[in-house]
VOC family protein (Leptothrix discophora), 257 residues
Amino acid sequence: MSHAQGTPIWYELMTRDPQAAQRFYEAVVGWRFGEPPPPGSAMDYRMIGAPDGLVGGVFTLTAEMCTQGARPAWVMYLGVNDVDASVASATAAGAQLQVPAFDIPDVGRIAMLADPQGAPFYLMRGASDAESTACAPDRPGHGAWHELHASDGPAATAFYTSQFGWGLGTAMDMGPDGVYQLITVGGQDLAGVMTVTGGGRPAWLIYFRVDGIDRAAERIVAAGGQVVVGPMEVPGGGWIVNGIDPEGAMFGLTGTR
């Protein structure tokens, strides 16, 4: 892994119905999906590819997982140099360990945590130094932006900057909605943190780039999803849409108009 500490390197959709997810996101984003595993496999995990590289994977939630509280969601992986050391540091700072560190042969070492306010994320050290293609803000189908909806934005910002070396970009005053704090990763604006009131579990909202935001919003509805925000213009001249897929997973799209 040749990325700066804390760089997003993979995106994972946790869903109950991978076939339905494939139909939806193929129609909306234009991704291609890997073949399902052979019958009887211990786990159903399918790769997600943009036209020019892999972006993430689809993890199938079992009935038992759902009974224990798991629900459809998008989760990002942050690349780190040492998973165990990063887990120890993050938990000492108030994060909760959800899945202890484990190794996947020829893939890498992985752990899952929830930050001190409950937003889940993965840590990963890849088995090779090959560069991830998942986060590429200017390339269609790739991760373009990462937005943390926190119960306490400043506290969340302090946690991630102290743990992963993230820098502070512009702090934008959103009026009644409070401050939107831009985050730099490896010197590039890649994320934003905001305080969200009125309930709801803190979570990361991942935005993927598409060509034509209005057409993408129409495809969300046509494929059985919901548009909950947008199309809306954001600083810098871009446009965004926040959507919910048919299984209930929240996601974002960004593009031109």
